[in-house]
Specification:
The chain is an alpha+beta fold. The chain is built from 18 helices and 10 strands. Strands 1, 2, 3, 4, 5 and 10 form a 6-stranded mixed sheet that branches. The protein starts with a helix and ends with a helix.
Amino acid sequence: MAAVSLNRGIYCAKILRKLARQYIIDHTVLPINPFGEWKESMLADEDLCNDINLYLQEIGNDITAEKLVSYLARDDVREKHGISQSITVRTARRYLHTLGYRFTSSKKGQYSDGHERKDVVDYRDKVFLPRWEQIKDCIRTWTSENLPEYGPLCGKRIIVWYHDETIFYAHDRRRKNWFHKDASAKPYAKGDGHSFMIADYVSADFGWLRSLDGRSARRAMFPGKAKDGYFTAEDIQEQANAAIDLVHELYPDYEHIFIYDNATTHLKRPDGSLSARKMPKGPSSKFLIEVSKRDANGKLVYNPDGSIAKEEREMEPGVLPDGCLQSLYYPENHKTHPNQFKGMATILQERGYNVDKLKAQCNKKFNCAPPALNCCCRRILFNEPDFVGVESILEKTCKERGVQVIFLPKFHCELNPIEQCWGYGKRLYRFYPESSREEDLERNALECLDKVPLESIRRFFNRSHKFMDAYSKGLDGRQAAWAARKYRGHRVLPASLMADMEKENMK
């Protein structure tokens, strides 16, 4: 009965019976549990608990229950804390759980594989952030309470539209839930099911880009070779034109800027544009550019099997330092190399470089050791103004219609607030009834995105702008992520940022 009153089982009753009989025999004081009350863990000792936490911090991401068992079995630890018995792996797991650790997948944050790569940081700090500084004072901002921050704008008001693509999966559902312990197993669908791709624009001022009668620049498709195909550079261009039509019709009094991520489909250059990627060092009769074939009206020509027809042509001329055009091919009447490609060496010599002792490129993968700019012929050409300044098809298309384009740095999804809009919509989608039908997938995905409230969209924008402010103050990715959590609700980081970072040892 005593064991039952303690919510214990048979083992507890046996121990109590043994202790009671021992007391009847010799009337001595009952033995005291060295770890406190009945079955209280060693974590009741604050000093030991602190030492365990320090040890776990030292081993970082390599924490295991076995390592904790070994740590508590060390002679120095036993002597310091008066430990007389070892613990089991199961007890160690319970200790880890008590200390706040969970055996689970790590939470996803910003990308780290190339986030702090030198070329990525250079583009972020020298191209993107200066461009953002030029326009940010012309953008209407919003408080954490979803109220506009009124004040004079430095010029014509700018509406920034962020673009991105996402994919919804038919079987993407929340798997964790409250189930009865006796509930039976239920069959579930194998794999992710059908996929549904959506590309759209969003702004803090107006939310998703659409008119009152439901017209929008949103594009949706079931991707796949046997389905709707894939989202190409031509599709991006067509969507941009549709978006420009809408913003000019709906919001003609504002200036508009489209911000895209650094995807290859967004950065595709016109056929035949300058590129040093595959150029040989010396003359060549075979160096021509393969481009898509077009008819007299500029439309693509297709082969009988449905693929796009290709043809070869010369690369466009470059621009010399004095502004004159530089043909990359010898003329027809050249004595030794008529109509042949000149080669990188000759092209650079015509620009005033001495490249006699330089290789075509440093290594097979073209991974020149930074900060080298003139280590090989290809690297020099890569950094020439006319090679660097080639505009993408998307930039040209938008510029011709009065809309500027800005590209985000690679691996910086935290700077694009539409990523969080996708996340909000997918969280709602996971509560919908699961279905393998494509029409259900399409309807539910679009419905969930339309439910993302404007108030949340503006909070997402504030968070992205907070990261931009952190990077402009010289913080790296890890420090910026810490600052975003520390100053939640802020759009701009406070003046006490550096002092707070020193207190938290974040420098």
